[in-house]
Write a structure and sequence with these properties.
The chain contains 10 helices and 6 strands; from the N terminus they run αααββαβααβαβαβαα. With 275 residues, the protein is an alpha+beta fold.
């Protein structure tokens, strides 16, 4: 470019030109910052809630994993299970039904029980029978009014679930052990969804129960009012064929629960007195 055609500005003139020429750009720059701030804030809020939901889900999954790792401590039969008697079961009384090793029920009978999802529970993917669940909710609210938290850690098990558990024991301990101590499909109350294993604590996220605590004794003392019994009580192992299971509730209906509790009877004894 030839020197004579080049245009030069004085210092003051060049400043004014630069300032005038960038005023719109400055406003545009500020608007971009504001827009980006709004966008980033929105993204942050979404990420925060997403992380919170993920964290809660992970806590639930961890709780479920902890339980599954300890599952072999639950629902253990004993040698007395081989001496249980076959009785005339009241199939027309869905909630008085006796289910044990000597009184197994078929898939057709179990199809009469409608399973529903357990909500507001620290353990995910739990189901129990509909009427059992409705009464459980009443019991749960009653203990929550005392400042205690009740959750179900194991509820309905399909025949396939029971079969898998049986096979695991069979592989680990052998067939003789499994036949003596493990409930086959149709021999577990969990198959009908009218029984469940629970945890109760003053901590809403607890995965263990102190069976010598005030909260446990309170739950045990009012359970019959809502139709529940401790199905395998201490001192009656030879009668039920199961070891003592303070965590295992069975729904039998309010009237029968009151009768069994008042007379200190198990379902096996109840059916025996009915004969």
């Amino acid at each position: 470019m030839k020197k004579e055609k080049m245009k030069f500005y004085k210092l003051e003139e060049s400043k004014s030109i630069v300032t005038f020429g960038n005023s719109n750009k400055k406003n545009s720059f500020h608007s971009i910052i504001i827009k980006n701030s709004i966008i980033f804030s929105f993204i942050f809020i979404i990420m925060f809630f997403g992380f919170s939901m993920y964290a809660n889900n992970e806590i639930n999954n961890i709780a479920a994993t902890i339980y599954k790792s300890k599952k072999d401590t639950n629902e253990k039969m004993n040698s007395s299970s081989n001496n249980l008697e076959t009785v005339k079961v009241k199939y027309d009384e869905k909630y008085e039904i006796l289910i044990n090793k000597a009184n197994q029920i078929s898939q057709e009978v179990l199809d009469l029980y409608k399973q529903v999802d357990v909500k507001n529970n620290i353990y995910p993917n739990i189901k129990i029978e509909k009427t059992t669940y409705n009464n459980y909710i009443k019991l749960k609210k009653a203990v929550e009014n005392k400042g205690y938290f009740l959750n179900i850690r194991d509820g309905f098990r399909s025949f396939k679930d029971s079969e898998n558990i049986y096979k695991q024991y069979e592989i680990k301990y052998g067939t003789k052990y499994a036949e003596k101590y493990v409930a086959k499909p149709g021999a577990s109350e969990h198959n009908a969804g009218i029984a469940f294993d629970f945890v109760i604590s003053k901590d809403k996220n607890a995965t263990n129960t102190d069976y010598n605590s005030d909260e446990y004794f309170y739950l045990e003392s009012i359970a019959y009012l809502y139709g529940f019994i401790i199905r395998y009580p201490q001192g009656k192992e030879d009668i039920t064929g199961y070891e003592y299971e303070p965590w295992h509730f069975r729904y039998v209906g309010v009237d029968l629960a009151k009768y069994l509790t008042k007379n200190n009877l198990t379902l096996e004894e109840y059916y025996k007195t009915e004969e």
